[in-house]
Specification:
Layout lengths: L1 H14 L12 H10 L5 E3 L4 E7 L4 H11 L2 H6 E7 L8 H9 L3 H9 L11 H17 L6 E4 L4
Parallel strand pairs: 2-3
Antiparallel strand pairs: 1-3, 2-4
Helix pairs in contact: 5-6, 5-7
């Protein structure tokens, strides 16, 4: 009887086992071409010679920790140039915060106020802001950006 129960349990677990999700990894040249297409949509931090492309959600605690670390480290800002792309995590409902950052007069300052200073900023989503968000989201989906922060370091030629 024990063997039968064990065999049934084993069969049920095999049948209902989930296949591990694998994430798509685009070839480097294709990923860089996609990022080049949305470069104008980025918020830039730093003046370094190495480009780092980063997808963040302004309300994500891990993204906030990353931006805080980068923004408060003069050496990192002098060594790297960060292209920050705002890409919302659906469960965080950050669309109005993303809109407030993009529509502000100084997006980089507003980004730091929201992510480092944890100041609440919200604005209604406008047409130009939605277009910008949609362009970033399309690239993020094609690149299979599945976590935030998501970093890509540009290789030197």
């Amino acid at each position: 009887m024990k063997i039968l129960v064990f065999a049934l349990l084993l069969i049920v677990s095999i049948v209902h086992a989930e296949q591990k999700k694998t994430h798509l990894q685009l070839p480097y040249t294709k990923a860089m071409a996609l990022l080049e297409g949305i470069r104008q949509d980025a918020i830039v931090l730093g003046e370094g010679s190495t480009d780092v492309y980063v997808f963040v959600d302004p309300l994500c605690p891990h993204s906030r920790k990353f931006i805080r670390m980068v923004s408060q480290n003069a050496q990192m800002l002098s060594k790297y140039r960060y292209y920050i792309y705002l890409y919302s995590i659906p469960r965080l409902n950050s669309e109005r915060t993303v809109s407030a950052i993009f529509s502000s007069e100084r997006p980089a300052e507003t980004l730091l106020k929201v992510m480092v200073g944890q100041e609440p900023h919200e604005a209604d989503v406008t047409g130009p802001t939605q277009k910008r968000v949609d362009e970033i989201a399309a690239v993020a989906r094609e690149m299979d950006v599945y976590k935030r922060p998501y970093l890509i370091v540009a290789l030197r030629p």
